[in-house]
Design brief:
The protein is mainly α. The radius of gyration is 20 Å and the shape is globular.
C-alpha cells in the first residue's frame, strides 16, 4: 500500500508540472514510472496466480483447439499465451502494461488540456476500479483499452470500423460484445444540460426499481449472444450486492448530474465521452444485481480519465470548482485507503512485489 501511494503521488506531481511548457516531459515521465511500477509487478492482484497458472497449463498442450466450445477463456487471450511461450509470462505482463498505458497516454493527451493532466493521472491511480483492479483483471483491461481506440471512429460515425475494433476486443474478453450498440452513439447529437439531468435521474430511479426485471433480461441476452458462460456472475452478485446508501450513494448521483449538465459545454467529440461516463453511472443501480453489470460498466468508466478533468475545467465558479475537486479527491483517497483493507482485495494488494523476488523467470 505504501509503495503504491508514494508512486501515485509522485506521478500526480509530475503530471502537474507538465502544465509548464519547459517541463512538458514530466507527463510522459509519470506514465513511464507507472509502466515500470505495473510492468514488474509480481503476485499483486487477486487473479495474478490464476493467470500465471493458466499460462503454464495452456502452453503445456502441444496442439490446442482454439474453437473448443467448452473452453471458457477467449481465443485471443490463449493465443497471446502461446505467442509469449518462449518469452515467459513476465514478458507478457510487461508488453500488456506498455500497450495499455500507451493507450491511456494517447487518450489523456488527445482530450485533456495540459493544465489538467495531473487530475487525469490522479483519477487513474486513486480510483480503485481503474489502476488497481485493472492490474488484476488482465483480460478485460486489454479489451477495455482496445475499445477505447474505437472512440474517434464512433465520433466520426464510422461505425463499421468501431464495431470491428470492439469485436476484436471481444477476442480477449467476450463481455465487450455487450457494448457493441455504442458504435451508433456518434449519431446521437442531443445536448443534455438540465434536460439530461432530469432524464438521467429518472432512468437511474427506474433501473433501481426495476432491477429484478432487468436482471432477467440481461440473463436472456447473455445466452442469446453466446455469453452464457458469464451468467455465473449474476448469481455471484446476488448474495453480495446490496444497495449502498448514505454519502457515497449521494456522491455518485451528484457526479452523474454534473456530468449530464456540463456535457452541453463540451465540443461534440468530448460530449460523446461525457455520454459514455453517464452510461457508467446508469449502470450503477444494475451493479447491485450482479458482478457482470459492474464489469460491463467498467468499459464506460475509463472515460472518466478525460471527463473528470474537463468537468472541473467547465465549472466557472472558482470556489465551487475547488470544493468539487476537493470532494472528488477526498472520496477517491478514502476508497483507495479502504481498498487495501477490504476482505476481497486487501490480502492480494497490500504488499507490492516485483518479478525480481522470483527465483526464476516465469
Amino acid at each position: 500500500m505504501f509503495e503504491t501511494a508514494v508512486i501515485g503521488f509522485v506521478c500526480v506531481l509530475l503530471a502537474y508540472l507538465a502544465r509548464y511548457r519547459q517541463l512538458s516531459w514530466a507527463f510522459p515521465l509519470s506514465m513511464i514510472i507507472l509502466f515500470v511500477f505495473l510492468g514488474i509487478r509480481y503476485e499483486w492482484g487477486n487473479d495474478y496466480q490464476q493467470y500465471i497458472s493458466k499460462f503454464a497449463i495452456y502452453n503445456s498442450i502441444e496442439q490446442f483447439n482454439y474453437f473448443d466450445p467448452k473452453e471458457r477463456w477467449e481465443i485471443g487471450w490463449i493465443f497471446l499465451y502461446r505467442l509469449f511461450k518462449p518469452l515467459g509470462f513476465f514478458s507478457l505482463v510487461i508488453a500488456l502494461t506498455a500497450f495499455e498505458l500507451g493507450v491511456y497516454y494517447w487518450f489523456i493527451k488527445r482530450y485533456v488540456p495540459r493544465e489538467w493532466y495531473w487530475f487525469a493521472v490522479f483519477v487513474f491511480i486513486f480510483t480503485p476500479d481503474l489502476m488497481l483492479i485493472e492490474a488484476s483483471m488482465m483480460r478485460q483491461t486489454l479489451a477495455m483499452c482496445i475499445v477505447l481506440l474505437s472512440v474517434p471512429f464512433i465520433f466520426k460515425k464510422r461505425f463499421i470500423i468501431a464495431a470491428l475494433i470492439i469485436l476484436f476486443a471481444s477476442l480477449f474478453h467476450s463481455s465487450a460484445k455487450i457494448i457493441l450498440p455504442i458504435v451508433f452513439l456518434g449519431y446521437v447529437n442531443w445536448r443534455l444540460g438540465m434536460r439530461g439531468v432530469i432524464v438521467g435521474v429518472a432512468l437511474f430511479v427506474l433501473l433501481l426499481v426495476a432491477k429484478a426485471i432487468v436482471s432477467s433480461i440481461i440473463e436472456d441476452t447473455l445466452s442469446t449472444i453466446g455469453l452464457s458462460k458469464y451468467t455465473y456472475y449474476l448469481e455471484e452478485g446476488k448474495d453480495e450486492s446490496e444497495l449502498a446508501t448514505g454519502l457515497g450513494f449521494i456522491y455518485k448521483v451528484f457526479l452523474m448530474c454534473l456530468i449530464l449538465y456540463y456535457e452541453k459545454k463540451q465540443d461534440r467529440e468530448r460530449g460523446l465521452l461525457f455520454k459514455l461516463t453517464a452510461l457508467f453511472f446508469l449502470f450503477a443501480p444494475l451493479g447491485f444485481i450482479s458482478q457482470i453489470i459492474v464489469r460491463v460498466g467498467l468499459y464506460f468508466q475509463v472515460s472518466m480519465l478525460v471527463t473528470y478533468p474537463l468537468l472541473m475545467r467547465s465549472i466557472d465558479n472558482r470556489l465551487a470548482r475547488a470544493l468539487i475537486i476537493l470532494m472528488v479527491m477526498t472520496f477517491s483517497l478514502y476508497d483507495f485507503y479502504t481498498f487495501f483493507f477490504s476482505e476481497t482485495w486487501g490480502a492480494y494488494f497490500f504488499e507490492y512485489h516485483t518479478i525480481f523476488e522470483s527465483f526464476v523467470w516465469k
